[in-house]
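Q: What would this chain look like folded?
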Amino acid sequence: MLRRIQHDLFDLGADLSTPYKGGEDEALRITLSQVTRLEQEIDLLNAELAPLNSFVLPGGTELAANLHLARTIVRRAERMACALAEKEKINPEAVMYLNRLSDFLFVLSRAANGNGAKDVLWEPGVNR
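A: My prediction, written as structure tokens:
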């Protein structure tokens, strides 16, 4: 999964670095099938996870913490792509891909935390 995502991210870089014309654009673009594949993988991973009853804080295993960090970086990239879209026309699937990728990384972090068993859960008001 991660190797495929690495390739997708290079496709995304090519997509965002080339002016978007829409329609039958010949440039390398993120496609709806790449977004759909991420959604399917999210569903597969989610099926094995303990249900959430609180917000999850970054942490748990080292791998999960790193996946949370990657997720926040992807969210930042998504916000930047949205800001770019306000100024220039960009491929809408590129923004969709970033959104789904951040969700995928969140679910993968939970899987890396023993399918949610080692998640660090938010405890509201714990430090009062």
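The longest strand covers residues 56-57.
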